[in-house]
Each structure stands twice: as C-alpha cells, then as structure tokens.
Amino acid sequence: MEKLPALADLAATEEAILGGTTARRGDVVIARGEGCWLWDTQGRRYLDLTAAQGVAMLGHCHPTLSQAIAEQAHCLIACPNFFYNDVRARFAAALRQVLPDHLSHVFLANSGAESIDGGLKLARLATGRTGIVATMRGFHGRTVGALSLTWEPKYRKPFEPLLDVTHVPFNNLERMDAAVDENVAVVVLEVVQGESGVIMGDAAYLRGVEEICRERGALLMIDEIQTGFGRTGRWFAHQHHGLRPDIICMAKGIGGGFPMGAIAYTEAVHQALYPGAHGSTFGGNPLACAAGLAALRIYREEQLIERSAAMGQLLLERLNQALADRTAVREIRGLGLMVGIELREKVGRYLKALMEEHGVIALPGGSNVLRLLPPLTISEAEIEVGVQAIAAVLPD
Ligand SMILES: Cc1ncc(COP(=O)(O)O)c(C=O)c1O
User: Fold this and answer.
1) Do 374 and 337 sit in the same domain of this protein?
2) pLDDT category, 8, cuts 50, 70, 90?
3) What distances in angstroms separate CA 55 from CA 52, 113, 255, 295, 380, one per listed residue?
4) What confidence category does residue 396 fall into, taking pLDDT thresholds of 50, 70 and 90?
5) Residues 6 or more apart from 310 whose CB is under 8 A from it?
6) Where in the sequence is the domain holding 240, given as residue range(s)?
7) Which residue's alpha carbon is nearest to atom 7 within ligand 1?
C-alpha cells in the first residue's frame, strides 16, 4: 500500500483514535500559533477570529504567558490541595482584585463545565433547596450537571434523565417569575448567550431576574465562562448591568488559554462550606495558577479590557459599513469583542469558504449566526483582514 503523506497521517491517526465526538474542519492540522495567527503543518497561515473557541484572549503564545508557564514547569507542576502553595496564593489574591467586591471567595477548577457543576453544588448547599431554573438556548457545558442546564435538545436528549431543570424562555421575565418558587436553589443564565448566537440579555430582564431571586431566596448564578475576562469590554459581562450575582462561573480566558476554571461566590455561600464539600485533584495546580497569574498581569498591563471595548466598537462599525447593503444579513450585534452576524440562512458553508478561500477562522452561533471571538490583542489591520474576508464570502 502507498505510504500516506504526513498530513493525512496525523489527521487520520487523530480521527481513528480520538474521533467520534467532534465534527472537524477538513483535515487541517494546526501546529503553531502567534498572536491572532495559526499555522498548519503545511505552513498555511490562518487569522483566528475565534481565539481557539474564546480562550486565547491574549493571542496565541503571548511571550510573557509562555515564559511564566515554562518557568513554573521547571519549579513545581503538581501540588495537592492539602498543602498551601506560593503561586496558588498569589493567583488567588490577584484574581480577587479583579472580581467584584462582594464575590469574596473562589474555588479553583479545570474547565467551564466543572465550574458549573461545582456552582450547582454550592447553591444547593447554601440554600438547602434542590430546584434549578435555567434558560432556553442557554449553553453551560456537557458534563452531566452542566448538560442538565444546557438547553439544546440535540446535546441533551440521548442522555436523559438528567438533573431536573426547569427551562424558561430567555428575556421573558413573566415566565421566570412563574418558575421561581420557594424550592428553587438557583437560577443560572448567561448575560449574553454565546453558543446560541450572541443573544443579548435585556438590562431590565436581567435586573428583574435578580430581584425575583432575592425576593424568593434563590441564588443567582451567572455563567461568565465565555463572557468573562474582558470578552464583552468589562471584566465580567454582568457588570454592564450592575448585577450582584451570588455565584459566577469562569473558565476560557482565566488562564490566557491554559486550561483552568473557577467559581467565585459570596461570603454567605462560603459560610455553608466544610472540608470535603467539594474538591478537584488538579484544580488550582501550580502550572495553571502561574498561567493565570501571568494572564491577569497581561490583561492589566496591556489594558485589554478597555481594548476589547474599543476594538469591539471598531469591528462592529466596520462590519456594518462593509455589509450595509446585504439582504443575506439580518442583524449585526455585539458587546466588546463578542460579535454575531445573523444571516437569513445557515452559516456552515460561509465558515468553510472563509477558511478555505481566505484563511480566516470563525465560529457558528446557533445555525445561522457567524460568531467572532477574536483575541483581545487583535489589531486594526487584522480586523480589516477579517472584515474584508467576511464581506467577500457572504452573498448579496
Ligand atoms: C457559556 C459557556 N458555559 C460553559 C461552557 C463549557 O465550558 P468547557 O467547554 O470548558 O467545559 C462553555 C463552552 O463553550 C460556554 O461557552
């Protein structure tokens, strides 16, 4: 048999062993990244307008981040949580500084879904109640707890029965009002629904949900996994609306791309904890904490939160100008560098054309939204490359 070329080898090997759960984009094998750019094994360059699914917020391989990880890797990689650790303590203090004042305590985890599952446990513990309310079109991850909150039937149906969760329509206060009774421990929502297509929560709705929670003794848990760390132009999206959630879940940008998750919560929630209430072997490991510590320094030093707001504005303006006369476009919306272009048809073929014809990588949001989550370090020139490519592939 003829020997397979190297590219087909790697893609085929990965697919044969690891395949089955993820739809791939052709047989592209990504091998290197720098800033907003990725390179495949054949040397082709791509503009990454997804920040590797919203995590590489500082750009790929930010030198300060890479150096911090490398240095820590030579010092200490694993440290059990029954010991204190110098980097973990420093990271905790740095994270506490960027969190809203009332979220005074943190549990360190490894991913978004793990943070969500932990948040549900904390809410049940703190309230002594079991009920959970989430929103339609919400996405919170795919572990059993997180999947119970996730609405999309395609993801959840085969795994039912899941946790008992009441799903109510997003941005509908009446239905929320009817769903939250004295048995509800927690209401979980995103301020901007990402996976469903960058759907903005109305300010009045979000404040109304918080009021309902307060009135009925339920906790408000906000999923900041995609929206946190400057994605929307504030440290956390709920800050746009002056909300005071009892719990927030974080991941994606927290370690600048290094795998990490966290749950932040109030003193009242903290009061319910006891040793063994929750745990995670890898959570808060020194390598992740060193990455997190460096990432937080970079967000601040490079003023990336403010930059996200400014560059997001520019991206929206340029998209609006470039796509002004397109009937195929129903709406362009965004908050900071979280942007959705809603089309009148399915988005799949345009994502393919963007990558294959223009070397630009974007994400879907729902079935008909082209979603952009670029690194917060994106330049004006890179925005222009992206806008021109999008304008070239979208139809009239
Ligand atoms: C809003 C939101 N919540 C939860 C998750 C799940 O995070 P993870 O994939 O790290 O488990 C995601 C991932 O895309 C997300 O966007």
Assistant:
1) yes
2) low
3) 6, 14, 8, 11, 20
4) confident
5) none
6) 65-301
7) 112
Say if 198 falls within a structural domain.
yes
Q: Is the pLDDT of residue 3 over 60?
A: no
CA-to-CA distance for 194 and 162, rounded, in angstroms? 23
What's the confidence (pLDDT) of residue 280? 98
196-213: pLDDT as tens digits = 999 999 999 999 999 999
Block residue for tokens 């590219």: 7
Report how far residue 115's alpha carbon sits from residue 395's, in angstroms, rounded to the nearest whole number.
Answer: 40
Coil, strand or helix: which one is 38?
A: strand
Taking the centre of ligand 1 as the mean of its atom positions, its distance from the CA of residue 150, in whole angstroms, is 10
82, pLDDT greater than 70: yes
Q: Which atom of ligand 1 is nearest to the CA of 227?
A: 1
Q: How confident is the model at residue 7 (pLDDT cuts 50, 70, 90)?
A: low
Token pair listed for 396: 């009239």
For the stretch 32-53, pLDDT in tens is 999 999 999 999 999 999 999 9
Q: How high does pLDDT run on average in the chain?
A: 97
Please tell me the distance between residue 140's alpha carbon and the centre of ligand 1 in angstroms.
Answer: 5
**CA of 2 relative to ligand 1 center, distance in Å:** 42
Q: What are phi and psi of 291, to 5 degrees?
A: -65, -45
321 pLDDT more than 70: yes
**Ligand 1 center–CA 226 separation, angstroms:** 7
- Same domain membership, residue 52 and residue 173: no
246 and 359 belong to one structural domain? no
CATH code of residue 333: 3.90.1150.10
- CA–CA dist 339, 390 (Å, integer): 13
Choosing from 57, 152, 252, 335 the residue with most ligand 1 atoms within 8 A of its CB, the one to mutate for a pocket test is: 252
CA dihedral 331, 336, 338, 343 (to 10 degrees): 10
